Amino acid sequence: MRNQSFQARSKLHNLKRSAFLIAIATTLFLLKPSLSLASGITASGQTVSFYIPVSNNPRNRSPLINVQLFVDSAPIWLSALPTSIAGPVTIYPGQTMPLRMDFKSNNLFNPNQLQAEVDIEIKSNNQNLNAPRFIWQHRTSNAFETMSSELLDGVGQSFGDSISPDTFPPNSSLFFIGPSFTNVSDNLFISTQTETGIQAVDQQVPDSVVSGVAFTGFLLDLPASNITQLKPFISTFTLAEGNHFIVYASSDNAGNVEALNISSIAVDGTPPISNLSIGQPQFALSTTTLLVSAITPFVIASTDRSRVASPRALEIRSSALMDRASRFYRVRSRSRRPMD
């Protein structure tokens, strides 16, 4: 019975010790890697660096001996550089060593093939760790503008992963509920009944954290130099007739701030006035209906009384009143704006 109790305690002790060693290994090596190239590789001749900090737990009693980096695999368009800080180094308890692998894109780089994987192995002579080596697998779909990374041991067991932080600001745009019109000169016209709003979306970038929109603000007919001067957008609003401009922008939960947007809007709330002039021949069939022939000249003049230069569209509707041989028509007309 004593032997069984001793064996049970010994087994429990070994399990605790094993768990402690795994925790140490994770603490030693699971420090998030980072990139030095924020915009990604876009052409040959550009360099990118993978920073892999390696830390020795302060509770560890011995140094990490001969810690060094090796490139297990990389795309053919990346060439390793001798400027890398790859070791071997000795890392003492409580010390962190910022190791680095440098690459340069060569003439095999294809801007249409941006997916790639770089595997960097971390080796150490220490035998008291649960794995003699670890591998950071770095994957990208945009030539390392962003990347996802996973730390594996020699047999493929995962010790954690990481993706690039959110470094991209949101995108804001105006939207309208009701009549709106943009002419060929890109001038925007809306009605006094049109509701104006602002929508913002945090950019969805592969292999990157999306922190979400934190703030969307605007100013109406007032200048601004930064987002802190904007008031929060809460709900849609209508605008009085006249020319206006809106300054708007958004920020996300990671602190990325969008550049200020400025949009000019012409608000038209006054309908145009139309005048119809009809020549001869003509015949008044009633007080509301006039008969004309195919050769009767007529002119419709439309005047927009609005304070803004709103475009006009002229619409003429006609329908046959008598038989085709007589070539007489009944004419109705009206003027409208494209946003009415």
Summary keywords:
mainly beta, Immunoglobulin-like, 44% strand, 6-stranded antiparallel beta sheet, disordered N terminus, 340 residues, 1 helix, 6-stranded mixed beta sheet
How do you describe this structure in short?
With 340 residues, this protein is mainly beta. The protein is built from 1 helix and 24 strands.
List the helices and strands and how they pair.
Elements (H helix, E strand, L loop, with lengths): L1 H28 L4 E2 L11 E9 L8 E10 L4 E3 L8 E3 L4 E10 L10 E8 L9 E8 L7 E6 L4 E6 L7 E7 L2 E3 L5 E4 L3 E7 L11 E8 L10 E2 L9 E11 L8 E8 L4 E6 L3 E3 L5 E4 L4 E6 L9 E8 L7 E9 L4
Please, could you describe this protein's structure?
The structure is a single chain. The protein is mainly beta and 340 residues long. The chain folds into three domains: 15-163, Immunoglobulins (Immunoglobulin-like, Sandwich), CATH 2.60.40.10; 171-268, Sandwich (Immunoglobulin-like), CATH 2.60.40; 273-336, no CATH class. Helices cover 8% and strands 44% of the residues. It is built from one helix and 24 strands. The protein has one helix at residues 2-29, and strands spanning 34-35, 47-55, 64-73, 78-80, 89-91, 96-105, 116-123, 133-140, 148-153, 158-163, 171-177, 180-182, 188-191, 195-201, 213-220, 231-232, 242-252, 261-268, 273-278, 282-284, 290-293, 298-303, 313-320, 328-336. The strands form six sheets. Strands 5-3-7-8-9-10 form a six-stranded antiparallel beta sheet, with no helix packed on it. A six-stranded mixed beta sheet has the order 12-13-18-17-15-16, with no helix packed on it. It has a four-stranded antiparallel beta sheet with strand order 1-2-6-4. The longest helix is centred in the first third of the chain and has 28 residues, at 2-29. The radius of gyration is 36 Å and the shape is elongated. The N and C termini lie far apart (94 Å).
